[in-house]
Amino acid sequence: MSDIVKEGDIVLLYFDENRKFLVKVRSEGRLDSDKGYVMFSDVIGKPYGTFVETNLGFKAYILKPLLLDYIEKFRRITQIIYPKDLSFIVFISGISSGSIVVEAGTGSGVLTASLANFVKPNGKVYTYEIRKEFLEIAMRNVELAGLKDYVVFKNKDVREGIEERNVDAVFYDLPTPWELIDVAYEALKPTGSLVVFIPTVEQLSKTIAKLREHKGFVSIKAFDTMVRQYKTVPGEVRPNTWAIVHTGYIVYARKILKH
C-alpha cells in the first residue's frame, strides 16, 4: 500500500476510540458523523498519518487499516472468536507464510481472515462451512479485508471428510469436535497441529478424552485466555471497568504416527 491515499483506497478515519470509520474513498463521496462531515476529495492525495478537518473543525486522522480494524467491521451472523483468542490460536498452531491449513466452521470468517493473514502470500486456507448463507457472508468479510486470494471456501459438511492431505494445521470451531478427531488426523501431516475452540467445559472434557483415547496425538493441552485493557487517561490509569474475560476454551494437540 502506498504512503499516499489514492482514489478507491480503504482507509480508517479516526476521531477517537468511539469514532473510527472504515471507508472507501471516492472523490465525490463524504463521511457524515456527529463531528461533522469529511469530504473524501480532501483525503485523497494526503499522506497516511496526517489528518483532515470536518466542516465543524474536528480532526480525523487518516490511518492504514489493520486486520483488527477490518474484523471490527465484519458483518457477524454467528458468535465470533475474539482477538485475544485469535492471536493465541494462531501463535500456538505454529503456522506462518506458506502454511497450508484447514478450518471447519467458517461462521462469519473472523478466524478465516486471521489465518489467511498469516499464511499469505504463498499459503492457503481451506475453510469448510455447511451453511451456505454463512459462507457467503464470510466470503464478503474476507474480501473486505483483502484476503480472498488466500482462501478456498467450501460449502461442505466436514463430517464427510477433509479433502486436503498433508496440511500443516487443522482448526475446529464446531459444536462436536470430538467426533472429528479422526478426520483431522487423516488430513494433518506428521507433527501438524490441531487447534479446537469450544465454549463449554462439557465440550472441553469430551474433546480431551477423545484425543487421549485416539493415541495419535501428543502435547495435548487446554487453555483459556484473559486480557485486561487499561484506561490511558493521565491521572486515571487503571484497568477498564468493563472487560471481556472468559470467552471459550482452546484445545491444542500435535499429530504423531501410530505404530
Description:
There is one protein chain. The protein folds into two domains: 10-65, Vcp-like ATPase, Chain A, domain 2 (Roll), CATH 3.10.330.20; 70-255, Rossmann fold (3-Layer(aba) Sandwich). 25% of the residues lie in helices and 30% in strands. It has seven helices and 15 strands. It has helices at residues 40-43, 67-72, 83-93, 110-119, 132-144, 181-187, 201-214; strands at 10-16, 19-24, 30-33, 36-39, 51-53, 59-63, 100-104, 124-128, 151-154, 167-172, 188-198, 217-223, 230-231, 238-239, 249-255. The strands form four sheets. A seven-stranded mixed sheet has the order 9-8-7-10-11-15-12, sandwiched between helices. A four-stranded antiparallel sheet has the order 2-1-6-5, with no helix packed on it. A two-stranded antiparallel sheet has the order 3-4. The longest helix has 14 residues, at 201-214. The protein is elongated, with a radius of gyration of 21 Å.
